[in-house]
Amino acid sequence: MNQILKNALLPAMVLAISSGAYAAGEHGGHHGGEAVGEPGKAENVSRTIDVTMMDNYYEPESIAVEPGETIRFRVKNEGALVHEFNIGTADMHEAHQKEMQMMVEHGVLKGDRIDHEMMEMDMGDGHSMKHDDPNSVLMEPGESKEIIWTFTEAADLEFACNVPGHYQAGMYGDIEFE
Amino acid sequence: MKKSILMVLLAGLAFSAANAGEYDISVDRVQIDTGDFNKEGIGYNGASPGPILRFKEGEQVTINVTNNLDEMTSIHWHGLILPFEQDGVPGISFPGIKPGETFTYQFPIVQAGTYWFHSHSGFQEPNGAYGAIVIEPEGREPFRYDREYVVQLTDKHPHSGDRIMRNLKMSADYYNRQQQTVGDFFAESGEKGFMATLKDRMMWGDMRMMKADIEDVQGFTGLINGKGPEQNWTGTFEEGDRIRLRFINSSAMTYFDIRIPGLEMTVVQADGNNVQPVNVDEFRIGVAETYDVIVHIKDKEAYTIFAESMGRSGFARGTLAPEKGMTAEVPELREAPLLTMADMAGHMEHGGMDHGNMNHDDMAGMDHSDMGGNAEMDHSAMGHGSMGQGEGETLPEDPFYAKGSGLMPTASNGGKFLSYADLKAQNPLYEDREPTREIELRLTGNMERYEWSINGTKYEDADPIVLQYGERVRFKFVNETMMTHPMHLHGMWSILDVGEGKWNPLKHVISVAPATTVYMETEVDAPGEWAFHCHLSYHAASGMFRKIVVEGGPDSAVAEGKQSEHQGDES
Amino acid sequence: MNHLAVSMCGLSLAVAALANPAVAQEDPAKKTQTAKTFWGVSAEKFEYRYSDSDEELAVVEGDAYYGTDELKFRWLFEGEWEEAHNAWETLENQFVAQTPVDDFWDAKAGVRIDTPEGPDRVYGVLGLTGLAPYWFEVDTNLYVSDEGDASVDFEAEYELLVTNFWIMSASFESLVAFSEDREIGVGKGLNSTEVGLRLSYDLIDRSFAPYLGVVHERKYGDTADLARDSGGSTEDWFAVVGARLSF
After folding, report:
1. CATH class of the B17-142 domain in this structure
2. What is the reported pLDDT for B21?
3. How many CB atoms lie within 10 A of CB B13?
4. Which of residues 82-141 of A touch B (CB under 8 A)?
5. Is C50 helix (H, G, I), strand (E, B) or coil?
6. Confidence of residue A34 (pLDDT cuts 50, 70, 90)
7. Residues C18-23: what's their mean pLDDT?
8. Distance (Å, rounded) from C-alpha B321 to C-alpha B215?
9. What dotted CATH number matches B338-354+365-378+397-406+419-571?
10. Region C170-198: what's the mean pLDDT?
11. What is the ipTM of this complex?
12. Which of A161, B434, C118, C210 has the fewest CB atoms in 10 Å of its CB?
């Protein structure tokens, strides 16, 4: 993308990103009366769950947790495309998908790779397209990452990939509370 | 969420997986009721459309086709990769199936996805001889959905195929009832001024071309799974379901713009091959193409599947509803588009067919400088789809239409309209490599005479295109006509160049819009003889057709032996 | 008459091509996968005319063809039945071969046999038919009779779409003779003109389109004199009612 175009698009991007973030609710907080949970501490981890990302689905597609449990998710992207692992409600995912769409439109997300330089670029006002929410990891093919998450209470949650189209095609899993 | 995939079997399905690979199809005279008219036609197992054939990847299928007609017939398995003797094109793959005879097709299923089958004899396909093929993959589908439906479209016409062909030959505008009238002239004069309008009409009149020349054959009733708009094919669902819709365009001549007002569609497959999912509000399906989309319905409302013909002369309509009988609003047809000078650019540069100079099938060679706006433009400019609220943003140009083309589609809700440029393979089948050579195919014709050809030469006067087994050929389509041509290569995949390298999608039909240049590459990995043609029935029959001969390869000796036996005893 | 040279040339080429079916015959799919021969029958005019002098005429003008894109055989028929005399005032049958010479133009060659009430004539015909810029349909022919007389006719038609079903068509016909043929009432020079205006409605596809219209016929010069001598009129206005037919 050339510089002129980038500059012209900046205000729109910033606006959309920030509104998207608000719409998605403060991660770790409450949304629509549902507790998503919060980033966990390593010492509280009771279990490790391995999640494999394929194109475009997860293995496993369903995870059972207990309220209050802290889980270490070891996520590996074995697909050929960029994928996300994001814990949230369906509404949060939907809101996040708009942000991800923007990342695609601006060349940050390129199908099978992430343009990190572009992603971290300061868009003015200290905003960037940085993907650094604690409930989510965005990964290139072959990458492995971890999330430690505490599920504070039972809620209607899904883990999902919000790369445009992936969630709709079926790249989501259910989090069931026991 | 339900993990299991609920298979919904449609009426007319005559087979189940228990049949273990053996299938029987009879080719019959049938009665087709569109709700608008009743017409005798041709169908399979007593109905048109025929059954949905459900295969499993890796299965060895045996299909016994019995011809109950008083004329020759054939079945072509559209999009399937198979030995060429099984491809079902009379005169190329086999002699055809005589009246009263049963022909047994046998081939392995080496792919998965949505395909279809149809007669390749005369105009039996427009007369009703078509059905759907659904192939379940060996591994898991890379999607999740709760139920699925085949949505097979066609443009059923009250006239038989032979009659339509004859009428078009007598008068190419026989079926065009969207021509510009005196009234249009005065309306336009009021807007643009009398002189400007007159000048416009003079310019087109001078070329003897019509702006309204978008659909050769109007007057059809659009059908979904054999049902007309009034008969309203309905697929049911439960609240919260994700539904996979397998759209197949089995029309003789008609492109459809498809939308489901109120639902976003995620395109997950094109021409049977998985693509990286794209969320769209609307898409255009070329003749003989297939697109699989997934929709997620969160409420208990009815939704209309609305398929408007590209020229807006007709439509097909169906419904997704929580229960049969529920309907949603059926939108009005949008205003008919008109071709622009941009769509005419290819024609003007080269003129029509050269009658005095037939038989010069000048493959390759000749430097046709790029015309107008076309497909090899800057792919980086794409993808800036509908931005947020799109304040004053100009609409993204679709690189697969000429710049300024009257056919450039837009979504009715202002949202995202699928472009070929959005299609990227999910799992590339072939290594990306340099093509070994390029073959230029100019799509040519003479609208006034209703003659269609490739490189100015009709099939009857043309030599076959000879390819060598193992090569990767780059085909350059240059559309010099003002019609859109869905080009279909049998037996081998068409890798559409969308500028994404190894992610370029695999297709079996490449639609080439007027005055554009589109490239596709083919890994020549199927020995034998194959058909290659425009899938508009009356264009193919007029001569926009070639035989492709693949020389060499593992079965070459067998292939040659078979060929010498072939006699075209079909008439 | 450059066109004529071209048309003769084109025609002989087409005939040669037909006589030599060797072109790529080895591919049987060329037979099964393409539609090559076509036919059609139509009557551009099928009407009744009432003149301002109470003359009544039944007029039919039509043609039938069979052939390929490259070569068509066409039978053209034109007749005027005069009610008062119970006789064919005009009765022409043309049998021509027709071949394209350009994107929009066909050349024709053949014979024309006239067998109306009165003396018969046989003509050799060379013609050109097609679509001129701005959508004028044009048909022009050179005739040389068995008596050695030559004449040229010229017809043009323009269709104005009032709507996509209501069509106003304007037609113009004229005949010019290079020599006199007194027996059949043909004088030297401009013989006659016929101008017509018909408003039709496509009732069944383009197969059946009834119309109403007016036609003005006029004879000129020596031809007019010949007509007067035989008690005929030289200028007529007709009201016409009829239908355009096509199968």
Report:
1. mainly beta
2. 87
3. 17
4. 101, 104-105, 111-112
5. strand
6. low
7. 44
8. 32
9. 2.60.40.420
10. 95
11. 0.89
12. B434
